Amino acid sequence: MKLRQYLRIWLACVRYSLVRTMMFRFDFFLWSVVELAWMSVNVLLVEVIYRHTNSVAGWNKYEMLLLVGTSMLIQRLLMGLFWSNLFEMGRNVRTGTFDFYLAQPGNPLFMVSTRKLDPDGLANTVVAAAVIWYAAHRLGLHPGIGGVLLYLVLVAFGLVIHYSLFLLAASLTFWIIKTEGIEGSYFTVVDFSRLPREAFHGAANVLMVYLLPAVIVSNVPATTLIRGFRPAYALWLGAVAIVWFALAVYVFNRGLKRYASASS
Amino acid sequence: MAMHILTKYRHVFLVGLQSNLVYRWNFLIRGFFSLARLAVVFILWGAAYAGTAQIGGYSIGQTFTYFTALIALQFMIGAFNEDYQIGEEIRNGLINQFLLKPINYYLYRFTVFLAARVVSGILVFVPLLVVFPLLRSHLTLPTELWRPLLLVPALLLSALLQFTLAFCFGLLAFWFLEIQGFVILSFAAEMMLSGQIFPLDLLPPALFQAAQLLPFYYMMYFPAAILTGRIDLSSALHGFGFQVAWVLTFAIAARFIWLSGLRKHTAVGG
Predict the structure, then answer these.
(1) Would you state the pLDDT for residue B264?
(2) What ranges do the domains of chain B cover?
(3) Which residue, B68, B73, B19, is CA-closest to B39?
(4) Relative to the CA of B246, which of A70, A121, B87, B268 has its CA 20 to 30 Å away?
């Protein structure tokens, strides 16, 4: 029952976002092109590097393309579903408009996270999926329905991790009023997610692979699709997703207690 | 008269210095984020070089030097959010005061931009010096004397080019409510075609030739290549012709957009 109610709230938000997009059609077009341009930049980088070498940390060109595609897919999903909501949370906390979310009949975190959808981000998940499909085709992969579903579950774990990281950064706004540049910290993490895990050594390996979930987010789904299912790997990603999500929710709730609905 | 004009813009410069010093923490934080991106570059290219001594004729040290130099140059000549600031001044009517005063808006803005780059160009050396002990063994600069000599005019012209393009994009606010989309789109094109994602000489030869005809090449890659040894003397001298031509083209375009924008302008707010 409760779940159905949340689903209905979410669908209402989806409808609102779609109507809004239809009103600003040029904006939708422009921002879709913007995101497409940035994805092309990443694909081109792969093209250029592999003109001069056959292997990067044991990954060939199409394996690398699949990794980059996976990273893009997770990022586009975050952009499409949650980005502007969490991004605006900072501003709303500063101005006191955040009250509005607390007054709504539902879990504050849910209400904050799902108010708006960005159809341009979601439109580009299709492009990311096409890159992945093309790479898988060139690699001669035939994952079957089960393999595709497993991949999607791992991508969903990745999305949970990205959501948690960005929520953590955005929640800092409860303590530090000015949090400009938080998106910078998120994009930095995303930059690392386009690299193969095997390229990391020493301190970078400890920090980016084990302490921060920057690298495994994309590497686990991509490796699973390319080299087959390894339970330990998938469990690692699942556990990390749960831990970071719990941490982010905890920090958000602590922040919520601090919120004094001050406006300035 | 000339003296009088110089005094006027000297004051603008000093005010610009002060107002940008307010943002010193922003510049520093940005600088440290750049280091994270540099780490990504080192990890990626380090792995790419694992099986090969040279890529595109350059050693791993030369490639690292190129990307490290880019970071310093970005803070010294890059247009950060000048387009956004100009767009905002048009949108909320602050621009009206400049229309009534004996001051050229383009020169005023360029002077403020120079002041901002002096501040950020000095501050970027804080994060770079912090990691210098780690970087030192990877860096290798060419020693020809002509390189530092040509670097100075190349940097000035690149800064002019970067600023004038940003100025043109800012002026779009005369026609559009929201210019961020255009700005980020041009930023993506600029990042790639000015060599900030990969050194442009790694492109297939035909594409590299084509890139040299575009203005983006002269906004960042050109000075970076002069500094880090990816270009020889005759190509560098040849490149100056193109760079000057693009500066003039952009300046004329900016003038044209400015005049037609003013005709459209209704001076709301202020």
Answers:
(1) 85
(2) 2-264
(3) B68
(4) B87
